Automatic annotation (TrEMBL):
Organism listed in the record: Bythopirellula polymerisocia
CDD domains: HATPase (cd00075), HisKA (cd00082)
Catalyzed chemical reaction(s): ATP + protein L-histidine = ADP + protein N-phospho-L-histidine
Entry protein name: histidine kinase
Key words, A-Z: ATP-binding, Coiled coil, Kinase, Nucleotide-binding, Phosphoprotein, Transferase, Two-component regulatory system
Taxon lineage: Bacteria, Pseudomonadati, Planctomycetota, Planctomycetia, Pirellulales
Annotated gene: zraS_2
Length: 305
């Protein structure tokens, strides 16, 4: 009896019972019959040790995954905090610049009327006016980027929205000799914030025009698929550098010498506000395509309710 008690004290963590589950941190081994050999005990102990090692590896892998996810979330929080501060500053600057632009633009228009009979001065004034227009576009980009309003839901025809954007860009399209191809069903209907989506399509179209300074083809496609509404704007330019495809939607990232880097970031924000997303890819035949994917209308209607 004493020898059995001593043997039990020497192996306090070896618990013999039916089943293979671990209980309270103790290793479980298969049930051993009374009087079993030492070899059987060692085999059972080895099996329990292997299971413990496997569990330890699984736990280590899970800890690494959680640490990586935590690090990624912390980076996202830090970026969002910086963008929030930058957004507040940009909003203030944009409002101040716009307030200064309004009277200057009016004075330029008055001066333009007085110089109608002076072609040389009128040409210089037109260039100044173009500079103010570009500055106004930058201000609008800043204001749209810092705006966080919720969508105002409504149903409308996609063709009317796209035609409105094309009409607004017609002078620039003609000046750059760009052909427009619209592939949209007349009955295709959208449930979204019309003004926000118009801004998104306009930004994508302007981005495409920048990629085709020497002419090309602008293709706008829209259709309702099984998983939602797809709206694609493609160009026949040089495409996007493969290493930059993942960065094009980052705020203030731009490959243009005079770009703000906010146009595509605004489009992404608009898509996400509608519960959707935007993707970018290079076309096999050349150029780039940007696709806005919106959830199915039934889901959008539930979001709008």
């Amino acid at each position: 009896m004493q020898s059995q008690s001593a043997q039990h004290q020497e192996t306090p963590h070896l618990r013999i019972f039916n089943g293979t589950e671990e209980t309270q941190g103790e290793l479980a081994v298969p049930e051993l019959e009374a009087g079993c050999s030492l070899e059987t005990v060692l085999t059972a102990w080895h099996e329990a040790t292997v299971r413990l090692e496997q569990t330890h590896e699984i736990l280590q892998s899970e800890v690494r995954r959680l640490n990586e996810e935590l690090e990624r979330k912390n980076k996202e929080l830090a970026l969002n905090a910086r963008l929030a501060d930058l957004g507040r500053m940009a909003s203030h600057v944009a409002h101040e610049v716009r307030n200064s632009l309004v009277p200057v633009t009016l004075y330029v228009e008055l001066l333009k009327r007085r110089l109608l009979e002076n072609p040389g001065s009128l040409e210089i004034l037109t260039k100044i006016e173009a500079g103010f227009t570009a500055l106004d576009v930058t201000v609008n980009d800043l204001l749209n980027f810092t705006s966080h309003r919720e969508p105002r839901w409504a149903s409308f025809l996609a063709t009317e929205l796209i035609q409105e954007v094309c009409d607004a860009l017609k002078p620039q399209l003609d000046a750059q000799s760009i052909q427009v191809l619209v592939e949209v069903e007349q009955s295709a209907q959208l449930t979204a914030d019309r003004e926000m989506l118009r801004r998104a399509v306009l930004n994508l179209a302007l981005n495409a025009l920048d990629a085709m300074a020497n002419g090309g083809e602008l293709v706008i496609t829209a259709f309702e698929g099984p998983h939602g509404f797809m709206l694609e704007v493609a160009d026949s330019g040089n495409g996007v550098n493969h290493n930059q495809l993942e960065k094009v939607f980052e705020p203030f990232f731009t490959t243009k010498s005079n770009g703000t880097g906010l146009g595509l970031a605004i489009v992404q924000r608009i898509a996400e506000a509608h519960g959707g997303r935007i993707t970018a890819m290079n076309c096999p035949e050349g150029g780039a395509a940007f696709t806005i994917e919106l959830p199915a209308r039934q889901q959008l209607k539930r979001m709008a309710a």
